[in-house]
Amino acid sequence: MPSPGAVATVEPRLYRFAAWFDPESAGVLTILFGLFQVVLSVPLAYADQALPKLFILPLGLGILIMAGGSFTMANERNPRRVLVQGCAYSNVAGLVGALLAFCTYCYSLSTAKSDERCASYEHDRHVYRRRFSNDCPPDVLAAYCWSVTLLLLLYSSGAMVLHCLLSVSALKALKTA
């Protein structure tokens, strides 16, 4: 039972800087963006591309993005100063990671080669065209890798926006508390 003269302390909550901004919804979207990054890292692990170890980036970044969203959700459910600090740190780290991933994905997309990959298929091209489509397998794989990297770029852009909003909200909450 609290003493009669005790004043209840108010735990800091994330700052809502606009009526349309809901930290809980932003946290759920952030977790989903991180989950999409992790799921899309699997096809990149088996693809032959210009940056062969590129699949490690969305895997690590997805885990970092999901951690930021999880701290946001935990803070919205049970507001505590420690959770606001964890939310601020993880969202700033996620913002920096998403920015680095954005640059890496842009580089990977810009260095994608469109040269002829099917020179070895030239001698059997007439047989190949009768049985399958007009595209050769290396061209199809390169187009698939390019589109997966483009999806990762879009999800990283969305994560950057959400992490920026959540970082500002958490840092402002820490400053006012």
3D structure, described in words:
The protein has 177 residues and is an all-alpha fold. The protein has one domain: Four Helix Bundle (Hemerythrin (Met), subunit A) (Up-down Bundle). Helices cover 69% and strands 0% of the residues. It is built from five helices and no strands. Helix 1 runs antiparallel to helix 2. The radius of gyration is 23 Å and the shape is elongated. The two termini are 26 Å apart. The mean pLDDT is 82.
The quaternary structure here is: single chain
* Number of domains as seen in the coordinates: 1
Which overall shape is indicated by the principal axes computed on the Cα atoms?
elongated
Structural class: mainly alpha
Strand content: under 5%
Q: Mind telling me which CATH architecture this is?
A: Up-down Bundle
Q: How is the main sheet built? A: none
Order of helices and strands: HHHHH
**In CATH, what is the class?**
Mainly Alpha
Instruction: Kindly report how far apart the N and C termini lie.
Output: 26 Å
Please count the helical segments. Answer: 5
Low-confidence stretches: none
The CATH topology is Four Helix Bundle (Hemerythrin (Met), subunit A)
* Global mean pLDDT: 82
Rounded radius of gyration (Å): 23 Å
Helix content: 55-70%
